[in-house]
Design a protein that fits this description.
Length: 310
């Protein structure tokens, strides 16, 4: 893994104290490489004209918006489970109200005619694609992270002037945005990125590897959410919650909620171990050990299943 991104075994360290064993990966910052990844991320988004929509997922929404009397409560549930369907809606509603990040409120901004057009095969903003295991995994990740984030915020007495648990749900839903756009990128985007990286001569392979292996997802989330019209503060929160130094004091609690929510999902996916999760932040949410963490995940997954099955 280290070799693939241009590092050596010296960048990996394991040592012990009296209380714990610590694993450390040192990442030397080559400004040219990071600048290259950031630049091609902006160019990547400049070619992102359409939103990838899984055709089979769109069928349910199309059925709902084609009804004489649209069941908007049912629509909230369907759109709220799917990052792509939500993105498509926000593309239009943020033009009406740039501060509206609640799915239910966003749907209320749209007329029946607008909903019918947005979720139709004739909408040029839609790129209808086939489902794959990778895409379904990303969508499930974002759906669960959203539910975890909303409930963590609500149950830990989150207080914020402009953010509540419904907004936190949307912010959690955006967790897989960068990876989704990378996974569904067009041949034109892939070719253009290769051309741009080639300008960096001997750094080309390192830039491409870092871009493809997920580092670019942070930049892509930042650029794309700002392009949608989301404020800079919220865009930073969505894309940089894992780097607390970049988050305003007002939004730090929300950033910690998003961190724990996504770590819960990564843990459930067996992508991280409990010891890798920030203990200080866990303590702020009164999570003291792995057994308690497991139990919390179990409770939330059961609650989510019961809500969406109603």
């Amino acid at each position: 893994m280290l070799k693939r991104i241009g590092l050596t075994k010296d960048c990996y360290q394991v040592f012990s104290t009296e209380e714990e064993t610590i694993t450390r990966i040192l990442l030397p910052c080559n400004k040219a490489i990071f600048a290259g990844v950031e630049m091609i991320s902006y160019e990547f988004i400049s070619l992102q004209e359409k939103i990838p929509i899984i055709a089979s997922h769109a069928e349910k929404v199309m059925s709902l918006v084609s009804a004489k009397n649209i069941d908007r409560d049912a629509l909230v549930k369907v759109i709220g489970k799917d990052l792509s369907l939500s993105l498509l809606m926000f593309k239009y509603t943020l033009e009406k109200d740039k501060n509206c990040l609640k799915i239910q409120n966003a749907i209320s901004l749209l007329s029946d005619e607008e909903l019918h057009y947005i979720y139709s095969e004739s909408n040029p903003s839609c790129d209808f694609i086939d489902s794959t295991d990778e895409i379904e995994t990303l969508l499930l990740h974002s759906e669960r992270t959203a539910f975890f984030a909303a409930n963590l915020f609500k149950n830990n007495k989150g207080l914020h002037k402009s953010i509540d648990e419904d907004v936190m749900y949307t912010l959690g839903l955006f967790s897989s945005l960068g990876f989704l756009l990378l996974e569904t990128s067009s041949e034109e985007q892939k070719h253009y990125i290769q051309e741009l990286a080639a300008q960096y001569d001997d750094l080309m392979d390192k830039i491409i590897n870092m871009f493809r292996n997920g580092y670019a997802s942070t930049f892509i989330k930042r650029v794309y959410t700002k392009r949608l019209g989301i404020s800079d503060d919220i865009s930073v929160l969505i894309s940089s919650w894992s780097s607390m130094a970049r988050i305003s004091e007002e939004n730090k609690f929300c950033a910690k909620v998003l961190y724990i929510a996504e770590m819960m999902q990564y843990y459930d996916e067996k992508a991280v171990d409990f010891y890798q999760i920030d203990k200080t932040i866990l303590q702020e949410f009164k999570i003291s050990d792995e057994k308690q963490f497991n139990y919390l995940i179990k409770l939330m997954k059961e609650a989510q299943s019961s809500i969406f099955e109603e």
